Amino acid sequence: MYLSTVDRPAATGAGRRWTAIGANVFALGLVSLVTDVSAEMVTAVLPAYLVLGLGLTPLAYGAVDGLYTGATAVLRLAGGWLADRTRQRKTVAGIGYGVSAVAKLGLLVMGTQTAAIGGVIAADRMGKGLRTAPRDALITLSAPPGLLGRAFGVHRTLDAAGAFLGPLVALGVLTATGSAAVTAASRDAFDAVFVCSFCVAAFGVLLLVLFVKEHRDPLAASRPRARDLAALAADPRARRLTAAGCVLGLATIGDGFVYLLLQRRSGLAIGWFPMLAVGTNLTYLLLAGLAGATADRLGRQRVLLGGYVLLAAIYLVLATPWQGTPMIAIVLLLNGAFYASTDGVLMALAGPVLPQTLRTTGLAMIQTGQAVAYLGSSVLFGLVWQRWDTTTAVLVAFTLTLLAGVATAVLVRPRAR
């Protein structure tokens, strides 16, 4: 199968396309919704906590922010291989969800020690690394190949709903502690957010156990062996898609930096900092399903490349002296649309062309490349910001995005037989 063959829409009625996705996709989406409420409660306050609360430099925050994603790299591959080898994708994903839930409690006992906080964050992201590829593999196995764009769109929509609600819950907790309208929240306020985050994450694990069903690929006749990994790494389709994931990660500086730049311009109170994530996640929520359906209809490559246009537009706006509420609204709108156009679409593009016996490992390989590249881009952005200024850092990110877009267009273009 070639990349050009996965873009063909299924020959079913418009209404039946959504019902054909399957209950397992919706169950996985519900688990992701609850888990993202928990995760985004922490993510929404973490930049303010680290930079404005603990006084981290832009470079130090870039390293921690990169670690937040980059720590998933090794365990993505390990989790993908383990899931393929045991064919227990639900179990491996469940372990990952559990590790992330427990890590939320670690934030309570680490005080203000940056290295210790970084370790807890790494544990949380390792849990995400374990669960992401098995979960996405379950989605590819639970829906028809021609409807994978919609399947991932539905999942990412529910995921985005949780990401939208998470910062609101964090804001509610900060408000209850009297910290929403001041310029610095207390440690007790952050601790309250962390405790609530753990409780919500534990509920997500329970939903996974009760409602998600294991799904094994009927075409995978044998279990993969170690030597199959070399064959996967040598597969030109897998290598191109992994490279596409790498350049996407290299072009993305991360929401934390975007929100810190917006906060610096607006003077937003710390307690209201989570509302910036709400804006991004609301847009993602509204557009994820539409982006998936559009990708099935018009081509997943086209929608993915459109995401680079949106990302470049974000950096252009941030490079200007423009200030005010309209500027913030436009950046958040573009940011949510960028994620809707790239996140699930890249996985939908990759799923059908990877070997059945190593589908989870292949998805993990792509996600690992993206995570490692993101770690590098976060450190680089923080370094340029600290060494020169924010405008220079944003312009560097814009240049990298243009180069990444061109590289991705070459990597994912349809191939002739």
TrEMBL record:
It holds the Pfam family MFS_1. Keywords: Membrane, Transmembrane, Transmembrane helix. Residues 24-417 form the Major facilitator superfamily (MFS) profile domain. The chain crosses the membrane at residues 18-35, 42-61, 160-186, 192-212, 241-262, 268-291, 303-322, 328-350, 362-385, 391-412. It is found in: Cell membrane. It is a multi-pass membrane protein. InterPro entries: MFS, MFS_dom, MFS_trans_sf. Its main location: membrane. This is MFS transporter. It comes from Hamadaea flava.
